[in-house]
Amino acid sequence: MALVVQKYGGTSVANIEKIENVARRVINTKEAGNEVVVVVSAMAGETDRLIDLAHSASEKPNEREYDALISTGEQVTVSLLAITLNKMGYKARSFLGHQVKIVTDEAHNKARILSVDTKTINDELKKGTVVVVAGFQGIDPEGNITTLGRGGSDTSAVALAAALQADICEIYTDVDGIYTTDPDICPKARKLKKICYEEMLEMASAGAKVLHPRSVELAKKYGVPVQVRSSVNDNGGTLVTKEDKEMEKVVVSGVTYDRDQAKVTIVRVPDRPGIAARLFTPLSDQNIIVDMIIQNASIEGYTDLTFTVSKKDIVDVKKMLEIAAQDIGAEKVEFDENISKVSIVGVGMRSHAGVASRMFATLAKEGINILMISTSEIKISCVIETKYTELAVMALHDAFKLEKEG
Amino acid sequence: MALVVQKYGGTSVANIEKIENVARRVINTKEAGNEVVVVVSAMAGETDRLIDLAHSASEKPNEREYDALISTGEQVTVSLLAITLNKMGYKARSFLGHQVKIVTDEAHNKARILSVDTKTINDELKKGTVVVVAGFQGIDPEGNITTLGRGGSDTSAVALAAALQADICEIYTDVDGIYTTDPDICPKARKLKKICYEEMLEMASAGAKVLHPRSVELAKKYGVPVQVRSSVNDNGGTLVTKEDKEMEKVVVSGVTYDRDQAKVTIVRVPDRPGIAARLFTPLSDQNIIVDMIIQNASIEGYTDLTFTVSKKDIVDVKKMLEIAAQDIGAEKVEFDENISKVSIVGVGMRSHAGVASRMFATLAKEGINILMISTSEIKISCVIETKYTELAVMALHDAFKLEKEG
């Protein structure tokens, strides 16, 4: 008998019919002899409806109250799923953040889980109950309702799996696993049977949207095996797990891209200590995530500073930087929204030479100019013009023979 | 400085604009130097939407889960009101049943409040916070979410007022007080400045729908003064309070009617011990409320048994009684849905003779036949044909001079 944590996203519980499908899947898992804990998101569109309500009440809604409001979405779904399971003849109980003490820090709208009280859940599991837990929400130590931020239900599921020492955490979604690249733009894309946490993290941060990066970090920290599966078919899915020897043999596991990038260059920055801090602190204060940062070698006491941000932040960044750049005596600021980031990811890179040069050569052969380069231990990213995105992805997928297994 | 508990119903918080109106009213009360606790219902229509969802998942939804589902309606409103108050520059915090420990019994869908932990609320009030509490909901001793049944937010407000020893509990609604009768059918209806708990209870049970009877019972038990007011104007409203000498001078305070009644007669029931129990137990098991019960004197070992139920229950009652009547050897069961109950209510009745006879004479003068009579210490009810309802109400209102104060 295994303990299985299953998570179903908003599209999988979008209406009563789909909730009945989820219930059938849960029952199948239970009937196969497993204990089941189910984590569900709000019905598709519901969280957005609640967010709209909050914003129609106030442009900047109080964060504590905003969390109390939007957490109702998951409460509706857990009750409906429990009602459905009961109707189908199975014991089921819904639990909210305050009922199973999913304690988080006090950072409303982006809280982090600190602890989960497993006693109530274990007691129910022993009675044969299907335990249905609201994703995305918790309570802070004072009992205020908190939410974990977008994609937080994945994190809830992994946190519960870790706390309960579950045998597996299954994440049901609208794709049936992790692919070597986006099948929509590359028909040769192949579903991976396995991927390690590190690769998954790099792929997520490089643009793959299947799993929320925080949930992968948590899974990695506690060694929770995560199976990404489709809620509409019975295909095998992809197991996200610890790195093993086999994985290292594969140089590159995936190619990702991110069109939601904009490039900012501050030209002729006086090269003095503290300059970078003065430029980037106002951005981080506004929660603007800066991705790649490149500073050229200084020439005659001046340097150029280039970085990328999400396209949605570009208006705010323009406002802030035009002031900051003047303050520090830089010549000007240039913006380019016409870019993409293309990345290759793989733990095998660590032990294989020549991966970067093969990437650059592949892009060069296609006549694609590289605007920025950034590397990590298991990822190489190149910023290119947006119009070359698909071409680059397909060329790299071919160059690293990703259509073939192993 | 007074402590004021205010309750706003679903129509008063039906949309953001109306919630802003409520917020302004709360702020006015606060600015007048009071501490304010606000209890709100779900936005009009929201509870029905959630009930529909539950019933689309199951014909007979699990009661625990049903409560978890429908309690989200109030959670949405308290957060929106707190967001709005914060936006307007006032400290406000929303609280749910589990956060201020509104502990109830375990009777899901119709739970009764056992206790309220006032510490959190008092701490917030001391800080100058407007405390916004979700009506209609509580938790049982195990932490399961319970709801109090329709009209339960009135009960929540009175329970909070009692626990906090508030100076007044204001119930804002879409009428501006308690009238001597329904102004829609009797233009001479007059708003009462004061009414005592007992009269209010009898009027509520006799068809007046302004206050939920359970909230009046609770107010009576703890001596909470309740002011019924309009949320759309500043008229004075009606104070529901302890009986005083002045009230006793008034023989009749109000005339009520209830068209939602059906009459059931079981003809030639063998007059043996236990027969009534055998007839009524199946009805109470199904939560069908039997109002007036009349049993005639037994003739030759047989009697006729007549009672009234709500029209909505008549289908179920028919099914149950046709079996039960056969079981006990009664001749037949007759049903009449074409009836109304008209009642006069007043604490003055206790010390004034001839009230009943004046009522009967008034109806007789109008040619209205009385089908059933039932009396309590401060109420006389007559069942008549539905078509005479308005005529009877107006005639009684005139006969007892209710258009004149005192």
The average pLDDT score of chain A comes to 93
- What value does the Rg of chain A take, in angstroms? 23 Å
Structural class of chain A: alpha/beta
Oligomer: homodimer
Q: Report strand order across the widest sheet of chain A.
A: 3-6-2-1-9-11-12-10
**CATH topology term of the domain at 3-174 in chain A:** Carbamate kinase
* First-to-last CA distance of chain A: 32 Å
Beta-strand residue percentage of chain A: 25-35%
What is the CATH top level name of the domain at 3-174 in chain A? Alpha Beta
Which chains share the greatest interface?
Answer: A-B, 38 and 38 residues
CATH-level-4 superfamily name of the domain at 3-174 in chain A? Acetylglutamate kinase-like
Model regions low in confidence, pLDDT < 50 over at least 5 residues of chain A:
none
Describe what this molecule looks like in 3D.
The structure is a homodimer of 406-residue chains. Chain A is built from 13 helices and 18 strands. The first copy, chain A, has 406 residues and is an alpha/beta fold. Chain A has a domain of 172 residues: Acetylglutamate kinase-like (Carbamate kinase). In chain A, strands 3-6-2-1-9-11-12-10 form an 8-stranded mixed sheet, with helices on both faces. The first copy, chain A, has a 6-stranded antiparallel sheet with strand order 14-15-13-16-18-17. A two-stranded antiparallel ribbon of chain A has the order 4-5. In chain A, strand 17 and strand 18 form a beta hairpin. Chain A is globular and about 75 Å long. The relative contact order of chain A is 0.11. At the A-B interface, helix 2, helix 3, helix 4 and strand 3 of A face helix 2, helix 3, helix 4 and strand 3 of B.
